[in-house]
Every structure is written in C-alpha cells, then in structure tokens.
Design goal:
By secondary structure, the chain is of the alpha/beta class. The chain has eight helices and seven strands; from the N terminus they run H-E-H-E-H-E-H-E-H-E-H-E-H-H-E. Strand 5, helix 6 and strand 6 form a beta-alpha-beta unit. The longest helix has 26 residues. It starts with a helix and ends in a 19-residue tail after the last strand.
Length: about 270
C-alpha cells in the first residue's frame, strides 16, 4: 500500500493541485501524487486543453481518476469553487498544493499599481483563500490533510526586474507558518508547509553558456527538475511530523554563491 494511503487512511486520497494544466511544475506534482495512489483534481485557467491531455495521461499511466477544475485565481470566488467541485466529485480532500503563480520580468518604473495588486491577488491572496477553503473540509476529517504552498528560493536574493513578483511570493513563507498555527487549532492533523524551488525547468532557448553558468551557481553543480520539486511535495504530504516548514529545493543555491568568497578566496 502507498504510504499516502496509510497517512490518510484511504484507498485513494484526493489531491487538488492548482496550476497543474500546463506542462510545468504543477503538472509534475499531480503526476507524483497520482503515482502515490491519489485521485487528482487538476486546475487550469487558460490551459484547459493541456489539462485534458494531463487527465488522459493520468488515466493511462496510473489508472488515476481525475477531474479538471477551471478558473482565474484572480477572482475571489474561484478558490472556494475549486474546493467545492473537488469535494463534490470525490467526497473528500486530503491534499492541496498551491502551485499556480504568475511571473514576468518588468522594469520597476513600468510596474503599475494594478499589476502589483494582480501579483498579490494570484500569488498571495488566492493561496490564502484556497488554503482556508481546503482546511474547512480537512477539519472535519479524522486524518486532517496536508497543504503545500510553492514559494521561491530567490525571495532572499531577488532578481532584477521582478519587483512586483518577489513581494507576492515572499508573503508565502509567513503565510505558511501562520496558517499552520491557525489550522492545527481546528484539527491537529492538518499540516501546512512550503516548498521553495530553485532553478528548475529552464527554457529550451537558454544558451548553453548561460545554462552552464546556472549549473555552477548551485552546490550540486546542476539544474533541478520539476521531479525534484514534486518529490519534496510528496515528502511533506507523507511526513506527519513536519509542519510550518519552508523547504528550499534549490541545490544549495540559497546558501551559496559561486563568487569564490565562500570557497577558495574566503578570508575569515
């Protein structure tokens, strides 16, 4: 029996993964949880056709029962509806993964108040609303549930031209800890954790020279994969004694810089 089935005392636990339609990290998380025996509620905003392809793949590869939920997380009523549709289809909700997010480089002088609000609405507020709706269901389940948010390692070392994105993702760390405290008072079996991915899923058009430079920026000497992130999410769902943790999955990127000052040129 899958360990996830043991944790949630269910032959087929249910996982809702936002932002899992397009072939990115969210979809790989859905696949990993399906491998663990979960039924999956996929979520897409505009990537509905890709979500349908993912649903077919889940059925073919893992004999996984799935549904597709749709809606823009910019709208306040969508998070509750996604949870309601998941529970209506499967009768329970054991895992919520808040994977959906937006990001695009914009020079700071071009960031408008509306864009700033949009980043927070999708990357922060929607995470809160999805988690709160999920926890209301999990509170009535003996085995509670696991909520995993996706943050970003680079909130500690922000990139240029992402002045709207990084504050919205930086809120996830504090929100994770706060919600862990809030929801555990309703049911001690509800856990809230966070995964903070490092460099994964590089675009195909990135030049080899830049790719090599990114590889040397990690202690592991390589670029991560969506699978590394998905494995960490599954770990946080399986381990019932981990709560309120923000886990970097970044090859050591958040503690290391290849400028020689840590290794070789350090002076104490």
């Amino acid at each position: 029996m899958s360990f996830l089935k043991t944790v949630f005392d269910c032959d087929a636990p249910v996982a809702l993964v936002t932002g899992s339609g397009a072939p990115r990290v969210g979809r790989e998380i859905a696949m990993e949880l399906a491998r663990g025996g979960c039924r999956i509620a996929l979520h897409a905003n505009t990537s509905v056709e890709e979500a349908e392809q993912a649903a077919k793949q889940l059925s073919k590869d893992y004999q996984c029962e799935s549904i597709i939920t749709q809606g823009s997380l910019e709208k306040d009523d969508v998070p509750q509806r996604l949870v309601d549709e998941t529970v209506a289809a499967f009768g329970r909700l054991d895992i919520l993964v808040n994977s959906a997010a937006i990001w695009s480089p914009t020079p700071i002088d071009q960031v408008t108040p509306a864009e700033m609000r949009r980043y927070f609405d999708i990357n922060s507020v929607a995470v809160f609303l999805c988690a709160r709706a999920a926890a209301a269901v999990m509170a009535d389940q003996t085995t509670g549930g696991s909520i995993v948010n996706l943050g970003d390692w680079a909130t500690v070392r922000p990139y240029l031209d992402h002045a709207a994105y990084f504050p919205s993702k930086g809120a996830i760390d504090v929100m994770t800890r706060s919600l862990a405290v809030e929801f555990a008072t309703r049911n001690a079996a509800i856990r809230v954790n966070c995964v903070k991915p490092g460099p994964v899923l590089l675009a195909d058009e990135i030049p080899d020279r830049q790719r090599l430079k990114l590889c040397t920026s990690t202690l592991t000497g390589g670029i991560g994969t969506a699978g590394h992130v998905a494995h960490a999410v599954r770990f946080l769902c399986e381990n019932t004694f981990v709560n309120g943790v923000c886990l970097p999955v970044d090859g050591g990127r958040s503690i290391y810089s290849p400028d020689g000052l840590q290794v070789g040129e350090n002076t104490g």
